[in-house]
Amino acid sequence: MKLSTDEIERYARHLVLRDVGGPGQAKLRAARVLVIGAGGLGSPLVQYLAAAGIGTIGIVDDDTVSLSNLQRQILHGTPDIGRLKVASAEDAVRRLNPGVEIEAHVTRLSTENARELIHPYDVVADGSDNFDTRYAVSDACFFERKPLVTAALGQFDASLTTIRAHETGSDGRPNPTYRCLFPEPPPAGAVPTCAEAGILGALAGVMGSLMAMEVMREIVGFGTGLVGRLLMVDALAMRFETLRYSWDEANPLSGSGADAP
Asked: 3-state DSSP call for residue 150?
């Protein structure tokens, strides 16, 4: 895939990177990435994916922009209040990189539509804010055999991992699923919502940017990704730690008692 003169100038800093270069940039341009949520995590994620030259970005979100979003959801501005987030996000991408195609999905992802939404894409990045969506996305990615980059935010803490549960590791064992890491969602009401507990806006920016880097890593193949590793961020202590996790034979997707996809 030959880059145009404008693309060579736009992506010049990628092109001189030994581990990206022209072939890597061509992979980014050919890639289709689905982003779940155009909120706190989705805002920096979408912008950095667009800036990197991802060819097609799908965005799933059925919400509208509110004033309280703007403390962290930097895809949107004050004039966007009341608009659909996917519409605001598309305008922001157009300003940043008109060569990127946006596919807007004005819907809420659920167990019923997850596989249909995910199927046409190469990589999925989940920036949703609830456990029902996270489990629906991760299960669908397993059955559709798609890599998943998923993150979660707390008040001053956050986590990030990459799931390639449809593949096996170098040891011949299946890669872990999301359910190997978190077998069951917490009881309803056990984890306060963002509106109830609050959230540091800049933390969403940090984690969304890290998600974008993981997505690009999955597409280009540079470095070592977060498969089987959970990155945990403590913004109060400014501490980053990594926890290793592995395949659980009891998980319902790829465990010993699971049905074949």
From this structure: strand
Q: Letter for the amino acid at 66?
A: S
Residue 238 burial (CB < 10 Å; 0-12/13-18/19+)? exposed
Which DSSP helix (H) or strand (E) runs through 85? helix 85-96
Both structure tokens of 252? 């319902």
The contacts of residue 73 (CB under 8 Å, 6+ apart) are: 38, 39, 40, 42, 43, 65, 85, 204
Alpha-carbon distance values, 173 to 18, 184, 255, 256 (Å): 32, 22, 11, 12
- Residue 220 sits at φ, ψ, to 5 deg, of -85, -40
Contact 43, 19 (CB under 8 A): no
The rounded distance, in Å, linking the Cα atoms of 111 and 32 is 21
Task: Please give the pLDDT value at position 228.
Answer: 96
First-residue to last-residue Cα distance in the chain: 34
Closest CA to 176 of 252, 261, 65, 97: 252
Q: For residue range 177-232, list pLDDT tens digits in order.
A: 999 999 988 877 777 777 778 899 999 999 999 999 999 999 999 999 999 999 99
